[in-house]
């Protein structure tokens, strides 16, 4: 009986120990088998690259009209021979902003947008022409300050004034082309539409 008991205990210990030894490799195998599944990235929602580009362009266009009021006021003041120094300063600041818009446009990706080449070309032409017009009008303000620059409270027209008008016309033409191209994209993605004068 004692022998049987000892044998029984020994067999129980062997079975128990063997079970533990079998569990360890099995546990390790389970961990290693599950590890690759844990490393796999969880599926992310699908992203529309065209929409992302449209959003970035929308942010840029939101700044495109910031100086419009200052430009209109400055040109009106020059015509009346008023606040000429301030007008020239505001116009040159506006030109810098236009050129900065061109720079920023070149730094964002828009290749997924429909007719992106026409759109970026039109925007670039519009902003460059606007910058030229602003600088021409600023020079006109400087000329108006000079001798015989004003006559009966009205600024004399100069070559710089005429050049500013031509550049402004070119800008308007390019904005008229750009606006419907952008508004088609804005309508598709629920973004802000712009009239030509807001560009």
Number of strands: 2
Distance between the termini: 103 Å
Structural class: mainly alpha
Largest sheet, strands/sense/barrel: 2 strands, antiparallel
Overall shape? elongated
Count of individual helical segments: 6
Q: In percent terms, what proportion of residues is strand? A: under 5%
Structure summary:
It contains 6 helices and 2 strands, in the order αααααββα.
Description:
With 199 residues, the chain is mainly alpha-helical. The chain is built from six helices and two strands. The chain has a two-stranded antiparallel ribbon. Strand 1 and strand 2 form a beta hairpin. Helix 5 packs antiparallel against helix 6. It is elongated. The chain starts with a helix and ends in a 10-residue tail after the last helix. The N terminus is likely disordered.
Layout: helices, strands, pairs:
Elements: H1 2-39, H2 49-61, H3 68-79, H4 84-107, H5 116-145, E1 150-151, E2 154-155, H6 159-189
Antiparallel strand pairs: 1-2
